[in-house]
Amino acid sequence: MPRDDGIGASVRRKEDFRFVTGQGSYTDDLNRHGQTYAAFVRSPHAHATLNSVNTSAAAAMDGVVAIFTGQDLLDAEVNGLPCGWQVHSKDGEPMVEPAHPALAQGKVRHVGDAVAVVIAETLSQARAAAEAVAVDYGMLPAVGNMTAAKAGKAQIFEEAPNNQCYDWEIGDEAEIDAAMAKATHVVELPLVNNRLIANPIEPRVAIGDYDTATGEHTLFTTSQNPHVIRLLMGAFVLGLPEHKLRVVAPDVGGGFGTKIFHYAEEAIVTWAAAKVRRPIKWTSDRSEAFMSDAHGRDHETVAKLGLDADGKFLALKVQTDANMGAYLSTFAPAVPTYLYATLLAGQYTTPLVYANVRAWFTNTVPVDAYRGAGRPEATYVIEQIVEEAARQIGMDPADLRAKNFISPDAVPYQTPVALEYDSGNYAGTLEMAKKAINYDGFAARQAASKAAGKLRGIGFSAYIEACGIAPSAVVGSLGARAGLYEVANVRVHPTGSVTMHTGTHSHGQGHETTFAQVVAERLGVPIENVDVVHGDTNNIPFGMGTYGSRSLAVGGSALAKALDKVEAKAKKIAAHLMEASDTDVEFKDGQFTIAGTDKSVSFGDVALTAYVPHNFPHDELEPGLEEQAFYDPANFTFPAGCHIAEVEIDPETGTVTLANFVAADDFGNIVNPMIVEGQVHGGIAQGVGQALLEGCVYDEDGQLVTGSYMDYAMPRADNLPNFTVDTQVTPCPHNPLGVKGCGEAGAIAAPAAVMNAVTGAMRAAGVTKPIDMPATPSEVWAALHAS
Amino acid sequence: MYEFNYQKAGSVADAAAKVAGADDGTLMAGGMTLIPTLKQRLAMPSDVVDIGQLADLQGISVAGGKVSIGSMTTHDTVANSADVKGAIPALAVLASGIGDPMVRNRGTMGGSVANNDPAADYPGAVLGLGATVVTDKREIAGDAFFTGMFETALDEGEIITRIDFPVPTKAAYTKFPNPASRYAIVGVFVAQTADGVRVAVTGAGGTAFRATEMEAALNANFSPSALDGISVSSDGLNKDIHASAEYRAHLIGVMAKRAVAACG
Predict the structure, then answer these.
(1) Domains, chain B, ranges and CATH?
(2) Angle, nearest 10°, between helix axes A557-578 and A603-611?
(3) Hey, of A194, A649, A653, A712, which one would you mutate to test binding to chain B, going by the most B CBs within 10 A of its CB?
(4) pTM exceeds 0.95, yes or no
(5) Interface contact A785-B176, CB threshold 8 A
(6) Of the candidates A372, A368, A442, A457, the residue with the CA atom closest to the CA atom of residue A686
(7) A363 within 8 A of A143, measured Cβ to Cβ
(8) pLDDT at B47 over 90
(9) Helix (H/G/I), strand (E/B), else coil: A580
(10) Using CA atoms, how far apart are residues A89 and A411, in angstroms rounded to an integer?
(11) Could you tell me if the ipTM is greater than 0.90?
(12) Which residues of B touch A653 (CB under 8 A)?
């Protein structure tokens, strides 16, 4: 009988009671004694010289404590924000890596670029004074998109004369061109992966505090990775040693990647708090979030797929332009390269893959990782062109995919683009999904829609992604400036309850439940006796945080290893108590026993003995029962699966209704099926949002047109059907729990599925040119109308 | 938001006096447009005079072939009113589709009509039903009320007290919402009234307007097919990232037909 609170059980989330009863403690809920408030002066222009920043009138206003400008940061030798990943161009040159000052110096480069910060007694006073800071901007032509960047409409950085950040490639272009020339069919497809704004429900907040007695700086921030922020900000920006810098990320209301990065506001409140000797709170409002949170995606791609006469894929060639925005955000260069092009083999045996990626600076908000980060873009390219190929050569899209799948027998499988897939059964999830959506019944459903004057389409997305980042040595060789291991500490208390510390961070994922289930399963203690602690660099060992669907695969593995150590020590203590050899001790359901005897001690007895060591093997063991483990993974994990969308289009209005959506995923072993299902639901919702609703729009002058929810369309419950989700299990062979990441899969798979359904439906109405995301009613109608 | 004096009016006359007496006073009904504008620091009134709770301006009555609705009646009240549902169900349907539950429980009919947002729903009903806007000074015919984008026939400080809607034979409202804001990209209110068919269009232009060619066709034959072949010119219609003028013109035809069909 499995535990009802152990691995595999759909335990209700321990943390949700406090969240749904309004008792969470988010950064903005924290208030420090003597706190002041910061308001930023932000550029209304996309590209301008800063001729002067006059703060004298503002400084004289009521309640103003201090005002700082970019010049003040220069004078104080505060450095710019670092980039955490260096990509090299195909000619071997490192990427262009311009300075990213925390407050603009000399120039502003996007709408929302911070020019000055006003610190005042109240938020209202800070905002009023910020409006009174007189900035003389010298207007420059602005680069609002990549086309303008390439055309050299303006030069954004002196060191990037053509606005290019890098020109990178993977694979052999000559080889791929030769293979393409021999292909029976060559399918070419231009694609745009639309720019998105993450929009976590909680906007970013940062509170800086400085303790004059101890000299300790504290930053409370809405971060997915407090240790990474401490490292980047302490070592690179402010020059503060770790033992005098504490970073706390308490309850965080959603991240989706945009809270990974180190932001200017964090460094400024930390630095300025020590200058003014007062705590400083900055809370982004929603308008500010639109123009200062890192955006996501924004690729323009032309893909070419060569097939032989039987439909076997011979070669895939991809040319992608990626928008970096006005500065390099923390992990931006890695997203369209190592997190993207290395996935372009997909689930297929395509023997040759080549990608050339050019990254461009524009006068827009920096772009960085957003749920899926590179893998949604790769999946979109592969699954769109495969669907298009099926249409062009007249094959069933499921059959064409199945024909080209890497077979389970071929795993581990070395792809032509660096990754080695460790596990998977792609035909298995394809069949699960086909059955779930009743693929055989589609023709009848399509006919019924047609009779009602509607267009119906079905679309596949057979995705694979690499997550659980990452082997430190591998990412280091690819330009990462950090390691990507994880850490766990298991502290067994004298009466047998457990506090577990993790270097990962939960901002919606339910770690407080999932990790506790692993502890409950392994130590046999009830889940209510296990607490999970994260988010405070003073309380937890150095961990890398949560992103890239890594928490369970890497952090959970660290936990499993720490639990191994706890169990090993506990067995020795139990052996001592039972006067036996520890090799004879068995541990199950919280009881230590000796086979063939009736001897037994409980885990609680062992814990108490460890801390009240009256009868204890002191010559062999130290007292106490607390263990820690770091874990550096041997490989990425490779979740994969098949999502199928079915849509109905009203040709009179262009409205796309998502009629059905099914997901068959392989996440390896699953600790909490309910939480996994929730993660998949959320991911699909964001993927559907990208496909049908969300699109960040800049005009030619770099003004943000979609600067509020009046124009930026978020997915809502009534945009979505009930999802049918199911999983198959092929365990990850190289981590102790056999788990893979699940947090990003929905967002990775869904856009291609939805768009393949949309373009399929439109093809039935004679529209052969695929439309771009988001497939809004007006775009769909315009395409139908033009045909 | 900037600081301002908040004043709660005790009566309509008191509200008018308070606004008149302020340096730069503004009336607040439900505040569903004003408060976000204040929060974004896009307005800086010296005084906000709150009339949202005035008892005189609440309530719904049906008499003499008219539904009279107090100007401070919330959208939610209209949407759930048995009187409105019984007399002009299309008006209840319209109210139930405004904003979200929070907005519907704060926002008022008078506030919406006085603001005359080009994408608001109620102007479609006022024009489509040939309603009369009653103020603290006079009665204004619905056809003369909406004068331009965010412009109405109201004088400075003039307060809408109620709106009288003649009960039609049949009516329906169909809206094509903006995917982001869910305001109307195009909303069409069709009513068969004692004085003939009225077709009012909101969302598409600078202000709500009547589609007279459609009215003529429907007066001859009240059926969706009567609108076949009538195309609406896109000249002067709104255009933005969500919809071109041509798309809006097309949607007017689609929504009008659907409204006629919904009239039953």
Answers:
(1) 5-49 (3.30.43.10), 56-166 (3.30.465.10), 170-263 (3.30.390.50)
(2) 80
(3) A653
(4) yes
(5) no
(6) A372
(7) yes
(8) yes
(9) coil
(10) 32
(11) yes
(12) 176, 251, 254
Q: Give the mean pLDDT of B24-35.
A: 97
Tell me the residue type at A656: V
Angle between helices A777-786 and B245-263 in degrees, nearest 10: 100
Q: Are A232 and A537 in contact (CB under 8 A)?
A: no
Report which residue type is found at A496.
Answer: G
A127 lies within 8 A of chain B by CB: yes
- Nearest Cβ partner for B244 among A653, A710, A778: A778
A346-381 pLDDT, tens digit each: 999 999 999 999 999 999 999 999 999 999 999 999
Together in a domain, A307 and A392: yes
Residue A411, pLDDT > 80, answer yes
Substitution target in A649, A703, A778, A785 with the highest count of B β-carbons within 10 Å is A778
CA B222, B225, B227, B230 torsion: positive or negative? negative
Q: Are B62 and B83 in contact (CB under 8 A)?
A: yes
Count other Cβ atoms within 10 Å, centred on residue A683. Answer: 27
Q: What is the mean pLDDT of residues A740-768?
A: 97
Whether A710 and B180 lie within 8 Å, measured CB to CB: yes
Question: What tokens appear for B156 in the block?
Answer: 């400075």
Across chain A, mean pLDDT equals: 97
Q: What is the pLDDT of residue A621?
A: 97
Interface of A with B in 474-513 (CB under 8 A): none
- Helices then strands, counting H and E runs in chain B, come out as 11, 14
Length of chain B in residues, anyone? 264
Instruction: Give the Cα separation of A159 and A100 in Å (integer).
Output: 13
pLDDT in tens, A495-513: 999 999 999 999 999 999 9
Question: What pLDDT is recorded for position A334?
Answer: 97
Q: Out of A258, A283, A308, pick the residue that ends a domain.
A: A283
Confidence of residue A787 (pLDDT cuts 50, 70, 90): confident
Give residue-wise pLDDT tens across range A666-704: 999 999 999 999 999 999 999 999 999 999 999 999 999
Q: Phi and psi dihedrals of A271, rounded to 5? A: -65, -45
Residues contacting residue A371 through CB under 8 Å, at least 6 positions apart: A198, A256, A257, A296, A683, A686, A743, A744, A747
Domain that holds residue A237: 31-140+204-283
Residues A694 and A716 in one domain: yes
Could you check whether the bond before residue A774 is cis, i.e. omega within 30 degrees of 0?
Answer: yes
Chain A and chain B share a number of CB contacts under 8 A equal to 44
Tell me the DSSP string of A418-442: S-EE----HHHHHHHHHHHHTGGGH
Q: Are residues A49 and A125 in the same domain?
A: yes
The set of residues, in sequence order, having a beta carbon less than 8 Å from that of A39 and lying 6+ positions away, is: A117, A118, A120, A123, A126, A127, A129, A130, A282
Cα distance between residue A436 and residue A458, in whole Å: 13
Contact between A683 and A744 (Cβ < 8 Å): yes
A2: confidence class by pLDDT, cuts 50, 70, 90: confident
Asked if A697 and B244 come within 8 Å (Cβ–Cβ), the reply is no
Long-range Cβ contact pairs of B73-81 (< 8 A, separation 24 or more) = B73/B108, B73/B109, B73/B110, B74/B30, B74/B104, B74/B105, B74/B106, B74/B107, B74/B108, B74/B109, B75/B99, B75/B103, B75/B104, B75/B105, B75/B107, B75/B108, B75/B109, B75/B112, B76/B101, B76/B104, B76/B105, B78/B109, B79/B104
